[in-house]
Design goal:
The structure holds 2 protein chains of 2 kinds. By secondary structure, chain A is α+β, with helices and mostly antiparallel strands. Chain A contains 13 helices and 10 strands. The chains are: A alpha+beta, B alpha+beta.
Chain lengths: ~375, ~375
């Protein structure tokens, strides 16, 4: 066993940290949060530094980083902003799916543009009646001549309304086969005719936006189908582990930041003549918080290591997702408790952690779905 | 990072497992538990295989195992019996302290015998008025001519009454110095004149016994002092990390065994026409249990890795102790819930896990003391 970072990994972490410290200041975050603006500037800068190419193979212009490196990046980035780290990941993981399942032409068209930031990718699965039960999706795609005609509605779509975004839309292409077998994935630019996007205002995700998408006879060329017809679920699942791993690492980074903030406050805030952190009630709470945060990080890194070894790891990824998201929610809540009235004000970042974290036990597979996945991996046919 | 076991570690684990499967059957443990008997036979067999020397340096007849390897041993052993693992560990850690701080004569006299299990060691710190506040110990030890004369009382002494046991007694040798500077460690055979040992009957520890030890003008030779006079606290602290690590590994192994039992039951127990593990209420509970055990295991091995690399690790050891013991208690309790009325009967092992686990958030440093020390390591002067 080996729990340390290699020299290269330490350098990688340091360079991400340096970049974020400079470019992702608290003031910048607050401004975007308040204006509800997508962080174009910082992503443009990341693109210039080739950050978006980090996990892509070198032959496609990337750096060929492994899962374990990616979780180091995600954690380091999310220490400064969960939203920016999450938004960073979306394009990348959709891009990796194109690389894995696309035609030569699709790869040639999309991958370089994703890496240099000219286009972004978002993913569209969820519908009003298909949440955790994703295979219930019903947005239809029918081939007419050389075009797909898409009709239907997607909901809770992160970053769908951003400039130059192509959506990776999961659609129903065959109703006559079992529901998981009639799904395909089609690439649809978000400014195509017949696409209407409206915002859903939520507690957080102010920069990335959460959207509803309506497809009204949207027409895209036949070539926009990714992979084989009716193999959409396979595509979705093939990239899921790595995407989740990255997501877990962003939870862990953000959690540590929230904890550090509460810890610093507890050291400086004097009540009853001494720092509140010296009272057992607060000190012990912080000790538990750090223990749980360390556990979450270890679960994530363990799963990433398994992934890199080619060992099946869906159970371990689910554990990391479950424990990591629950921990962030808990720490943000306890952090707010420690910071008292100040934590509740918009002048401190704790309220942002409280808002950012709350949806994470729901999104990207709810805690309940993770538990079901883990239980099934343990041999229990939970229904 | 590397979260896997080496080939050698896998073989080690297997050899422990093979031995325990054969020699430490549920029936054997049940019999000892009912008769309240120390596992003499089993420990003797272990000694014959050289196991008592595992972490002891080769020059003293051991195998010089590092912490991670020894954790692998502890975890695997404890899957079969937490108490046997405890009995095994106590002697080993006392022996390591004697090797580290004793004279050549003491080492030559005691270690070879201990390796053969001809003698064993127990440790005596706690007193009626010195529990978590161990420095309050007051058992006195005065040098008269060439002998130490000991008077006082120790409480909650594990395995003090086993045959051929030498108690490593922490005593007050100087009342005038600050509390932690007036403590020494003296070796006291448990069968000499003036030593009275009575059992404290407890919920578990039926094999290794919990005892009160009374010292009434007990005389031992001057040479029975280990290390420097008044340096007892340093001796105690010097071995603490490794001992705690081993304890953590044993929590994890026992918790996994309890979980496996509940899981097996949940797969086979049919109610309402289907195995109860397929109901979400049970399946999700088991998923959480495994996630927490994995986290406890990762915390324990992370700390052991730090230890083996000579890095400061007391905070990480405390986290592993805190999370590991709390997890075993939780898992045994939930395991009993899963197994329903059967878990409550003496015919199943779950009640033993329930009993074995309950004291572990109290012994070897309570959860509250662990939180205090984690918080202090985080820079909070918790009082």
């Amino acid at each position: 066993m080996e729990f340390g970072l290699s020299k290269e990994q330490k350098l990688l972490r340091a360079s991400i940290t340096d970049f974020m410290k400079k470019e992702c200041t608290v003031e910048y975050m607050r401004e975007l949060d308040k204006k509800e603006e997508y962080p174009y500037t910082i992503y443009d800068k990341m693109a210039k530094l080739d950050y978006f190419g980090l996990p892509f193979p070198e032959e496609y212009g990337g750096s060929g980083l492994k899962a374990i490196d990616l979780v180091i990046i995600g954690e380091a980035m999310a220490r400064f902003s969960f939203e920016i780290a999450a938004g960073f990941g979306i394009s990348i993981f959709c891009g990796l799916n194109i690389l894995k399942h696309g035609t030569k032409e699709q790869i040639k068209f999309y991958v370089p543009k994703v890496i240099n930031g000219d286009i972004r990718l978002s993913i569209a699965i969820t519908e009003p009646d298909a949440g955790s039960d994703a295979t219930a999706l019903s947005t239809s795609a029918v081939l007419e001549d050389d075009h797909w005609i898409i009709n239907g509605q997607k909901t809770f779509q992160t970053a769908a309304d951003v400039d130059n975004t192509t959506m990776c839309v999961f659609v129903r292409t065959d109703e006559s086969v079992p529901k998981s077998k009639g799904i395909s994935m089609i690439l649809i630019p978000n400014d195509a005719k017949g696409v209407k996007i409206t915002r859903i205002k939520t507690l957080s995700r102010k920069m990335l936006h959460t959207c509803e998408i309506f497809f009204d006879n949207v027409k895209v060329p036949k070539e926009n189908l990714l992979g084989n017809l009716n193999e959409g679920m396979k595509i979705l699942l093939s990239g899921l582990e790595l995407e989740r791993l990255f997501v877990c690492s962003t939870y862990n980074g953000a959690t540590q930041t929230a904890l550090d903030m509460a810890l610093k406050y507890a050291k400086n805030r004097v009540q009853f003549g001494r720092p509140i952190g010296t009272f057992q009630a607060i000190g012990h709470m912080l000790a538990d918080m750090q223990t749980q945060t360390d556990s979450a990080t270890l679960l994530t890194n363990r799963a990433a290591w398994l992934y890199d070894q080619g060992i099946p790891c869906m159970k371990e990824v689910s554990m990391a997702k479950l424990f990591g998201s629950e921990t962030y929610v808990k720490i943000a809540n306890q952090g707010m408790q420690i910071m008292g009235g100040y934590g509740y004000t918009m002048d401190f970042e704790m309220q942002r952690h409280f808002r950012d974290s709350r949806v994470l036990t729901v999104s990207a597979g709810s805690s309940e779905m993770q538990r079901t996945g883990i239980a099934r991996a343990m041999g229990l046919k939970v229904v | 990072m590397d979260f896997g076991l080496t080939k050698e570690q896998k073989m080690l684990k297997e050899s422990i497992s093979d031995f325990m499967k054969k020699e430490c059957s549920p029936d054997y443990i049940k019999e000892l538990d009912e008769k309240e008997e120390y596992p003499y036979k089993l420990i003797k067999k272990m000694a014959k295989l050289g196991w008592l020397g595992m972490p002891i340096p080769e020059e003293y007849g051991g195998s010089g195992m590092n912490a991670i390897d020894f954790m692998v041993v502890g975890e695997e052993m404890s899957r079969y019996s937490f108490e046997v693992t405890g009995a095994f560990g106590i002697s080993v850690f006392c022996a390591l302290n004697i090797i580290k701080h004793g004279t050549k004569e003491q080492i030559n006299k005691f270690i070879p015998e201990m390796l053969k299990a001809d003698i064993r060691f127990s440790i005596a710190i706690t007193e009626p008025d010195a529990g978590s506040d161990a420095l309050a110990l007051s058992t006195s030890c005065v040098l008269e001519d060439d002998q130490w004369v000991i008077n006082g009382q120790k409480a909650f002494q594990t395995a003090a009454d086993a045959k051929n046991n030498i108690i490593n007694v922490f005593v007050r040798t100087d009342d005038t110095l600050p509390r932690h500077k007036g403590i020494s460690m003296v070796l006291v055979p448990n069968d000499i004149k003036g030593v009275t040992i009575t059992r404290t009957h407890t919920l578990s520890r039926k094999l290794i016994h919990t005892c009160e030890v009374f010292f009434d003008n007990v005389k031992v030779p001057k040479d029975n002092l280990v290390g420097e006079l008044n340096d007892g606290w340093n001796i105690l602290m010097s071995g603490l990390a490794l001992e705690r690590l081993f304890a953590c590994a044993s929590y994890v192994g026992a918790a996994q065994a309890a979980l496996d039992m509940a899981l097996e039951y949940a797969k086979n127990r049919v109610q309402f026409g289907r195995p109860i593990g397929t109901f979400q209420a049970i399946g999700h509970m088991l998923a959480d249990m495994q996630t927490e055990i994995d986290a406890a295991r990762l915390l324990a091995y992370r700390a052991a890795w730090l230890y083996d690399n000579g890095k400061p690790c007391m905070k990480e050891v405390s986290m592993a102790k805190l999370f590991g013991s709390e997890t075993y208690v939780k898992v045994a309790n939930q395991g009993m819930q899963v197994m329903g009325g059967y878990g409550y009967t003496m015919d199943f092992e779950m009640q033993r896990h329930f009993r074995d686990s309950r004291v572990l958030t109290v012994s070897a440093g309570s959860s509250q003391m662990q939180r205090t020390s984690i918080a202090r390591a985080m820079g909070l002067k918790v009082v």
